[in-house]
Amino acid sequence: MPISDDILVRKSQEGDYPSFGELVKRYEKKVYNLAYRIMGNKEDASDVLQETFLQAFKKLPGFKGKARFSTWLYRIAVNICLMRKRKQKKMKMVSLDLPILTQKEDEIKRELRDDWSKSPLATLENEEVRKSLSKAIDSLPEGYRIVLLLRGLDGLSNEETAKVLGISLPAVKSRLHRARLFLRDKLSEYFGEYGSKA
Amino acid sequence: MIDFKKLCELLSDYFDGELESDICAEVDELVSKDFGCKVLFNTFNKTIELFEEMEAEEIEVPGEVHIRFHEFLRIEIRKEEEI
Fold first, then answer.
1. Are B73 and A50 in contact (CB under 8 A)?
2. Contacts of residue B76 in chain A, CB cutoff 8 Å?
3. Counting beta carbons within 10 angstroms of the beta carbon of residue B62, is it exposed (0 to 12), middle (13 to 18) or buried (19 or more)?
4. Which chain B residues contact residue A129 at CB under 8 A?
5. Who among B8, B52, B77 is closest to A152 (CB)?
6. pLDDT at res. A192
7. Average of per-residue pLDDT values in chain A
8. DSSP track, A105-135
9. Mind listing the domains of chain A with CATH numbers?
């Protein structure tokens, strides 16, 4: 049976470096994937990976264990990503409160004619669907995209996502829902919900 | 009573298993009777499935990144030990 994160954290706090090494081994890939998806390139993801574990190592003595180690670690990683994005000035502003444009309910209703979910083309094997989804995710405002990515990471719950981002649970749920509606809109455009490509 | 507008608001809670069973039953009933609601329900669900499938495709840490990362940590931890 593998040693729990809690035990490895406690041993690391007592100066047992191999235990910290085991934590690194467990979360290296997760943190890299999160960083890669937020930053969008290998170089930045690699830097974020290093910085995250270095900060985690330095801050570990102060970790009280109120949240899961992974939640705490992802919070460090997300903060580093956001700081780097601000520094790079790739965006005018990295905000968690940007508005999102989705259709109004009555507009959706008028246009719902085809159930593309049943189409044999509605699969990631279909490169165009994969590209449409990927493009839609990339075009989400940062605050929505990160919520979506965190929820998809390591089975994080809404509550844990709220802890990682330091925002309220209702805010997480609202952003997650609006992000999903946005992705559905974009996939519907691809499938020609209003014309039927499927 | 749930209508189309309310359904739009409830979909994430429904698929995340966060709705009371009586409200779930109302959603199910609406979806079974109204074609537009059914399409929205099914396409929303499919969107979640496709997204989760894509997210599950983990990228491997490239070999050179892995080596550089562990070398970096080894040096940094040694520095801490020396303090």
1. yes
2. 54, 57
3. middle
4. 50
5. B52
6. 81
7. 87
8. HHHHHHH----GGG-TT-STTSHHHHHHHHH
9. 5-88 (1.10.1740.10), 105-191 (1.10.10.10)
pLDDT > 50? residue B45: yes
Q: Where are the domains of chain B?
A: 4-82
Give the model confidence (pLDDT) of A88-143 as tens digits.
Answer: 865 554 454 445 445 565 566 556 778 899 999 999 999 999 999 999 999 998 88
Tell me whether A157 touches chain B (CB under 8 Å).
Answer: no
Is A184 in contact with B44 (Cβ distance < 8 A)? yes
Residues 15-74 of chain B with CB under 8 A from chain A are 16, 35-36, 38-40, 42-48, 50-56, 58-62, 65-66, 68-70, 72-73
> How large is the average pLDDT for residues A153-176?
92
Do residues B44 and A181 make contact, with C-beta atoms less than 8 angstroms apart?
Answer: yes
Per-residue pLDDT of A28-59, as tens digits, reads: 999 999 999 999 999 999 999 999 999 999 99
Tell me which of A7-16, A147-156, B16-25, B74-83 is least confident.
B74-83
pTM exceeds 0.80 for this model: yes
Taking a C-beta distance cutoff of 8 angstroms, is the pair A94, A152 a contact?
A: no
Structure tokens at A106: 């009555």
Query: What are the chain B neighbours of A114 within 8 Å (beta carbons)?
Result: 39
Q: Tell me which residue of A144, A157, A151, A146 sits closest to A67, measured CA to CA.
A: A157
